[in-house]
Write a structure and sequence with these properties.
single chain; 302 residues; alpha/beta; two-stranded antiparallel sheet; 7 helices
């Protein structure tokens, strides 16, 4: 059994100004996704499922099929508003997608094995894919029911260019996730400390605090749990124009209800991502450094 990698690539890049999923960051036009796939294939993933939108499906699928044909099995699934559980309804004036938990749910017909989830516009690092693959294979071999989250040390996710928002992981003594707290405007101060504002005061964080960057390990049971909880979400929020159903909300519900535990896989990998056009030079520099250090070949798919 080889695990599957699901890539959340349905974003329209409104803040970036274009489809960043297909923007070039490597020396030969490689996207961030290319590097994630290179790491995933080397770590033992056997299939990739891209969650996209119909509006750019043709261009996206042509690009990745030309590079990956024969290297890994591929599926391309569209996340559209009208793809909801049978019998549910929503406000037809809505345009905003339903969120990341829904984006995973739409792949239920093509995933029947343990799978990982990542963002399309984030770089996660070699070690993170190895750890995630090992967890998913072990889950299959030992019939384990737990999920996992790959957690990064806060110091490896900060930006030199401003504040960041991070999901701080609250972990119990057995290495299981208790919850994820969204902390906004985290920054490293001139004296080296790290803090964020909360209730009119600065709250300090240790640089070794573990944070989630939306890299998860799930089992096919996800789809059954998600279907039930998404139905409840639509009943309460389906009439709203901007409500979203996020993965951490689903995971938190499963933990709080005692349905399963989520194992925290900590990694020393650096994480970096792109939100704005101004981030592009920094990301390109980081990738060039990885190539110079021998982590990747200059020609990724040669």
């Amino acid at each position: 059994m080889k695990p599957t990698l699901l890539i959340l690539a349905a974003g329209m890049g409104s803040r970036y100004g274009k489809l960043k999923q297909m923007d070039a960051f490597g020396p030969n036009g490689e996207t961030i996704i290319d590097y994630s796939l290179y790491d995933a294939i080397n770590a033992g993933f056997g299939k990739v499922v891209f969650i996209i939108r119909d509006s750019f499906r043709e261009e996206f699928e042509k690009y990745f099929r030309s590079k990956l044909e024969g290297r890994i099995e591929m599926e391309f699934i569209s996340q559209e508003l009208n793809n909801i559980p049978e019998g549910c309804s929503y406000n037809t004036e809505r345009e905003k997608p339903w969120g990341t938990a829904h984006a995973v749910w739409v792949a239920s017909k093509v995933i029947h094995e343990p799978f990982g989830v990542i963002n399309a516009d984030d770089y996660y690092g070699v070690d993170s894919f190895r750890q995630l693959s090992d967890f998913l294979v072990e889950s299959h071999l030992n019939n384990k029911k737990n999920y996992s989250v790959v957690a990064y040390y806060l110091r490896n996710t900060l930006s030199e260019y401003g504040t960041v928002n991070r999901g701080v992981c609250n972990v119990d003594m057995n290495g299981h996730l208790l919850d994820v707290k969204e902390c906004i405007k985290i920054k490293r101060n001139p004296d080296g400390t790290i803090s964020y504002p909360e209730n009119n005061q600065e709250v300090c964080l240790d640089e070794n605090t573990l944070v989630s960057m939306n890299m998860w390990g799930f089992l096919p049971s996800y789809f059954t749990y998600c279907d039930t909880i998404f139905r409840e979400f639509l009943l309460e929020n389906g009439s709203k124009l901007t409500s979203e159903f996020f993965i951490p909300s689903l995971v938190d519900r499963l933990i709080k209800d005692g349905i399963l535990q989520v194992e925290v896989l900590d990694t020393e990998s650096d994480w970096f991502g792109v939100t704005y056009q101004e981030d592009k030079p920094f990301v390109m520099e980081k990738i060039n450094t990885l190539i110079k250090n021998g982590i990747y070949p200059n020609q990724l798919w040669s």
